Amino acid sequence: MKIExxxxxxxxxxxxxxxxxxxxxxxxxxxxxxxHDILVVRALEKEIRVESDHPEVPEGPGxxxxxxxxxxxxxYGRGGGAGIFIHxxxxxxxxxxxxxxxxAAALGALNRLWGLGAALEDLIRLGETIGSDVxxxxxxxxxxxxxxxxxxxxxxxxxxxxxxxxxxxxxxxTAEIYSLYDSFPAGPGPDTxxVVRALEKxxxxxxxxxxxxxxxxxxxxxxxxxTEIKRSLMxxxxxxxxxxxxxxxxxxxxxxxxDARMVASRLKLPGCRVIVTSTL
Length: 280
Hints:
It contains 10 helices and 11 strands. It folds into 2 domains: about 1-155, Ribosomal Protein S5, domain 2 (2-Layer Sandwich); about 160-280, Alpha-Beta Plaits (2-Layer Sandwich). With about 280 residues, it is of the alpha+beta class.
């Protein structure tokens, strides 16, 4: 069985405070991308085996996919073994939910492989215990995301727009960025309601002007390259540019995939990985 695991970007990301459980309360407009990993899942007698073709992806219990498989076993009290191989295309530790997307894909695949009959709502509740972005990745469509990531409000698809992803040659720790955020002076967050309205109208230029991510200032304080990448994307013709999630990937939003390819061809960012994709 083969299943696709889609990357995401945050068209807006606000942090509303710290929850009693220690997580941060967020409000974000999340958008899935065409860029995806591929998971190949096969039945084994008892063993859970997770492997990948990427050297930075842990195999076995250290992988979020392995933890997802074990969570399914615990939740339903049944299920055999499974071999899961991850063909990695989404950059690692990049703010694109690559690990969460893989975990979400694994939950759906194991539900079918083991004949569990779980509804999407059941998988989303289980996904919440695995990772904050897993519920959105299970939903798999444009959405307003609240809580710690488990409150999902579907939005009209914002499909067909070009996206240029620029991943610098380093990763960041999501936990570290959120922890540092708490020490920064409070500032205005993005106007999430206005972002949603622009998205619903498919008004690219207004949306691009409204995009905002309160974590960007934190990651950029550690890595000034973030700001330079944004400038480069705008100078190359992107309608808007923003860091995704806790970073460090920065995306440029374009009117079409063809425009995104043109923007990418103009970039001169040595050491960075540049990927052209599109919104779904």
